[in-house]
Design a protein that fits this description.
The chain is built from three helices and three strands, in the order αβαββα. By secondary structure, the protein is of the alpha+beta class. The chain has a single domain, classed as RutC-like (60s Ribosomal Protein L30, Chain: A), CATH 3.30.1330. The longest helix is centred in the middle third of the chain and has 13 residues. The protein is elongated and about 65 Å long.
């Protein structure tokens, strides 16, 4: 079940380390132990370690009649903010007359 999640994350340019929220839908809570075992295996190999928030819901009617579990995931990618020094340097190159020194 987590192989599909890995593929979807990769397609978005993310990894499991980018996960921030999982919503897990189980057809029957009797499958909870199997889900936890698979989840623990999946997150044990994630580097750096991930600890997304998780909501778990029992739902009798999933996407397909053979589905026992569905997982909805949210991931976040960071966009690094440019350093202030880089910004000043770029402005100086564009308008050197503004930054004359005595």
């Amino acid at each position: 079940m987590f192989d599909n999640l890995t593929c979807a994350l990769k397609a978005a340019g993310c990894t499991a380390a980018n996960l921030v929220k999982l919503t897990v839908f189980l057809r029957d809570m009797c499958h909870l132990d199997a889900y936890r075992e698979a989840r623990n295996r999946f997150f044990s190999i994630v580097t750096p370690p991930a600890a997304p928030a998780v909501t778990l819901v029992e739902m009798s009617n999933l996407h397909g009649p053979d589905f026992l579990i569905e997982i909805e995931a949210m991931a976040a990618r960071c966009r690094l903010r440019p350093r202030l020094e880089d910004h000043i340097e770029r402005r100086f190159r564009r308008a050197p007359h503004r930054f004359k020194t005595a």
